[in-house]
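Researcher: Structure for this, please.
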Amino acid sequence: MEERKDANRNEMDTDDIELNGRSERDEDVADETDALDGEAGATDGGEDEEGCCETEAEDADGEDGQGEAPAGNEEEGGGKKFFKKKVKTDKKQDALKQKVEDLEDRVKRQMAEFDNFRKRTEKEKTAMYEIGAKSVIEKILPVVDNFERGLASISEEEKGNGFADGMQMIYKQLMTELENLGVKPIEALGCEFNPDYHNAVMQVESEEYESGVIAQELQKGYMYRDSVVRHSMVAVVS
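Model: Predicted structure, token format:
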């Protein structure tokens, strides 16, 4: 009985030793497994860190790319702004140029109108002056006719006295002033009849002049500058 107990004890001790050995091997295996897991974790951590670094690098590159894109946009936007500004400036210059041309055209038109008005006014003044002068000359011409009739009626004996000389001097002064104003007598005697200057009141026979020539001057005609104040009253050879 004691031998069996000792044998059982020995077997139990052997089992305990085997169990302890197994336990120690299991613990060693567990430690080795943990160590391997730690290395794997470290490796994964490194890979994760490298991935993170790569991700950060890509993010940085993306940010750099995004940073460069706005620069291009800014240049493009600046070009558009410059083009728009240039277009506006050109439009303003064209508008100003058109306005200047319109003002110049308006000034030229006004100057032309003023020049026409000045010329028209001068013509009207000249015409009014000529009309007034003609009216005065027409009223003076009968006085001249009377002077001529009076001087023609003076006899040869009376021509030397003071009265006749005074009449002659007054007549000469009057004709000089009329000539200075542009009044001159129309030539008639011995000239060909011209209805623009002569007024034929009768026809006569004449051996001295040919047909159509003025043989007598019944009343002297006068011109004021280039216009007729009074036609000559004449007799024309038939």
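Researcher: Any notable elements?
Model: Strands lie at 183-185, 198-204, 214-219, 222-224, 227-230, 232-237. The longest strand covers residues 198-204.
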